[in-house]
Amino acid sequence: MTSSRVKPTARRPIAAGLALIATLSVPGAAAFAQEANVLQAPSGMQPARPVPQSLASPPSVAGETAPASAAGPQSIVPPGYGATTPSSAMPDAGPSQFFPAGQQVTEPSVRVLSSIPGQSGTGIEMGTLSGVDASTAGLLSAQQGGFGATMWRGASRADIDSYIARLPVPSRSPVMTDLARRLLLTGAQPPEGAGNAGSLLATRLDLLIAAGHTQAALDLAQAAGKDRSPGVAAGLARAALAQDNERLACDALKDIPPGNDPAHDAMAAFAVKLSTYCQIAAGNREIASLTLDLAREEGLDDPLFYSLASEAAAGIVLRAPEPNELGIVDAAFYRLAKRDLPGNAAALAAPALLPSLLDDPSISDESKVEAAERAAAYGLIDGRGLAAFYKKPSFTPEQMAGLFTSDIPETSPLRRAMIYQAIGSAVAADERIQLFKLAFATAESAGLYYPTVEALYPELQVMEPNEALRPLAPAATRAFIAIGEQTKAQNWFALMTSGGQMLGRDARELSGLMRVAGGSPGAFDGKQLSAEIVADLRSGVKATQFYAASEAMLLDALGFQLDPAVWDALLDARGALTGKVPAEALLNQLQAAGARNALGETVLLALDAVGQTGPGSVHPRGVSQAVSSLRAVGLESEARRLALEALMARSGAGRG
Questions:
Q1: How many Cβ atoms from other residues are within 10 Å of residue 307's Cβ?
Q2: What is the C-alpha to C-alpha distance for residues 508 and 502, in angstroms, rounded to an integer?
Q3: What is the 8-class DSSP label of residue 382?
Q4: How far apart are CA 297 and CA 320, in angstroms?
Q5: Which of 212, 211, 208, 401 is closest to 222 using CA atoms?
Q6: How far is CA 129 from CA 108, 113, 115, 132, in A?
Q7: Whole-angstrom Cα distance, residue 287 to residue 26?
Q8: How confident is the model at residue 196, as a pLDDT?
Q9: What is the CA radius of gyration of the chain?
Q10: Run of H or E residues at 628
Q11: Cα–Cα distance measured from residue 549 to residue 226, given in angstroms and rounded to the nearest whole number
Q12: Beta strand segments in 278-382, E
């Protein structure tokens, strides 16, 4: 493929060129808590990733005692899914300016705005805090699910900047997605220490956009005031582009310096691309062509950008490779060039683009199913939204009749849509049992179990447990545990055990899941449970040992007291434990943050310890420390949900 990069014979600063162009602009645009009970990682296992240098510490000495969690057991009700997202409309900005002017703005006095997420037209509470920077802007008060204005109290600015920059978003864990969103939207005093006034806010915007929450990013940037640092302005522009809002995106250019090295400076490259976009959108096609020439001279190497921009500006179609991923700027230039998105856009699109794909009439229903599944996995739509897209594709009677022998690949989104539609039309008990179990099994393997349970809830909740449905009981019990319906879960579990009949490991593990989800540490038979766990740990079956070890460590983190024999058996079976091992320094910091009730730092470190892939892929020690520390700062419900997600990932009961 021919490269569009041209090596210049003499460098000409692109900043100077863009400054000249700017004069032609026109306005407008169309562990456990106790170290004695913490297993060391199996030999040879490596940390999931390094910790920031500021938190590096020597390896802990075996047997060294760490501070115990100060929080005692509390009565909880498992929370549901779908934390709210701010979606209030942004007020109109002033006239747009289409070219970066290179201004370096001064941060204003901090304003913390709070509106009720998910409801437009609600009242706004505004307060001004003296001596605080714009990074304090937020949308969630403590009463609305935020972590409070003092959540960073006692934390180091250097530590928080290091950890928040690598926040694992987007995540496929519902509870981790919820915690990350609330952390990013909370308005709070910044942590102590030196730091760029706009850096923390800019990082929060970037993370919200990476997670797909572009409306929340727009609202947060607006809450920070009109004077913006370059990083904040760039974040606002990217969020606006994701929502196809040319005016807001181009208005942000006045606060983004052009730079002179787009080949190596990401901000300079973004400024060039945004300038080109806004020039074309304003009808200044000749100026846009000049900007493209300057970008080539400066070594910006992006064939797809040049191809799309040249087509939009001058109707010239340049050869370019199909993208391996579809970013926000890429999608904006596809629109500008009036070129169809790649056929696999639903698989390539950044999370921030998924909501727009779902609303795009040019995208096929089949592609929208794939986009909807990704959006549901990242918490951008709920199970009911996923169900709506599962209903859209049309299947022939022959395809529906041959569902179990269909030529549609078993792992494809279309097959899951077909299963969903078949459940709605099935009448016979044995057929519904088979379809429900198939739906849960295929969803679990695709990482879509939680939204699938929500999507199927209307069908599942009207089914009364009876003898004819006994084969469905384990899968139904698991589903209702996942959705937080403890009573329904217990009813289906009772069907499993009625008449003295048991279903092997299913009954053992599902009872454990219910205990973690809502059991009381003061109302269980510790002797009997300890004996069951010890028997599992000594079984010699790795899957059984792994489940029992995870159960013991998570129960301990939740405040349940088990017999000492459990820990002896656990040490003997530690070779069966797998998963990514968080760095020792990170776990120590997480334990210390919980012990001193450092709410924001604890949430941030727990998110880092669990990681982007969720608690199912993390070593039980890392998850149990996160659970213990979240409880220590009063997040009992969230700790329960995290423990449940982790244990469900270790359990094979009721998978379908």
A1: 20
A2: 9
A3: -
A4: 19
A5: 208
A6: 11, 11, 17, 6
A7: 11
A8: 59
A9: 27
A10: helix 620-632
A11: 53
A12: none
> How far is the C-alpha of 515 from the C-alpha of 481, rounded, in Å?
10
CA-to-CA distance for 299 and 8, rounded, in angstroms?
8
Tokens of 376: 């549901």
**How far is the C-alpha of 363 from the C-alpha of 346, rounded, in Å?**
9
d(CA 126, CA 8): 52
Query: Among 607, 644, 614, 623, which Cα is nearest to 553's?
Result: 623
Dist. CA 517–CA 511, nearest whole Å: 10
What is the C-alpha to C-alpha distance for residues 221 and 207, in angstroms, rounded to an integer? 13
- Which residues of the chain have a pLDDT value below 50? 1-132
Could you give the CA distance from residue 637 to residue 645 in angstroms, rounded to a whole number? 12
pTM of the model: 0.81
- Which amino acid would we find at residue 620? P
Pick the closest to residue 137 from 196, 225, 54, 51 (CA basis).
Answer: 225
Which of these, 357, 363, 424, 434, lies nearest to 395 by C-alpha position?
424
Supply the pLDDT for residue 401.
81
Q: How far is CA 631 from the centre of its chain?
A: 21
Confidence (pLDDT) at 192:
83
Instruction: Tell me the C-alpha to C-alpha distance, in Å, between residue 120 and each of 23, 70, 508.
Output: 39, 40, 47
Note whether 235 and 205 are within 8 A (CB): yes
- CA distances in angstroms from 347 to 241, 360, 367, 375, 613, listed in the order given: 20, 15, 9, 11, 18
Going by C-alpha positions, the residue among 294, 368, 402, 423 that lies closest to residue 11 is 294
Beta-sheet pairing, 110-114 with 125-129: antiparallel
Token code pair at residue 473: 């009981």
Q: In this structure, which long-range contacts are made by residues 452-456, counting pairs with CB atoms below 8 Å and at least 24 apart in sequence?
A: 452/383, 452/386, 452/416, 453/383, 453/479, 453/482, 453/483, 454/81, 454/382, 454/383, 454/384, 454/386, 454/483, 455/383, 455/384, 455/386, 455/387, 455/390, 455/420, 456/383, 456/387, 456/420, 456/423
Say how many CA atoms lie within 13 Å of 133 toward its Cβ: 21
Tokens of 514: 């219910």
Q: Pull the structure tokens for residue 378.
A: 């990242």
Side chain identity at 434, as an amino acid letter? Q
Place of tokens 């080109």: 276
Only one residue has tokens 């002017």, namely 101
Task: Find the farthest-apart pair of alpha carbons in the chain and give their distance in angstroms, rounded.
Answer: 88
- Taking the alpha carbons at both ends of the chain, their separation in whole angstroms is 48
CA dihedral 134, 243, 326, 611 (to 10 degrees): 50
In angstroms, the CA 477 to CA 506 distance is 10
Stretch (H or E) spanning 126: strand 125-129
Please report where in the chains the tokens 């001279």 appear, as a residue: 297
Alpha-carbon span 148 to 223, nearest angstrom: 16
Query: Residue 302 corresponds to which tokens in the numbers above?
Result: 């992006």
Q: Which of 374, 113, 302, 318 is nearest to 218 (CA)?
A: 113
- C-alpha span between 558 and 552 (Å, rounded): 10
468, β-bridge pairs: none
Q: To 10 degrees, what angle do helices 620-632 and 636-650 make? A: 160
The encoded tokens of residue 249 equal 């995106």
What secondary structure does DSSP assign to 54-92, as a single string? GG--PPPPTTPPPPPP-PPP-------S------PPPPP
Q: What are phi and psi of 220, to 5 degrees?
A: -70, -45
CA-CA distance, 32 to 410, in Å (whole number)?
40
CB 578 within 8 A of CB 546: yes
Q: Cβ-count burial of 23 within 10 angstroms (0-12 exposed, 13-18 middle, 19+ buried)? A: exposed
The answer to whether the CB of 438 falls within 8 A of the CB of 656 is yes
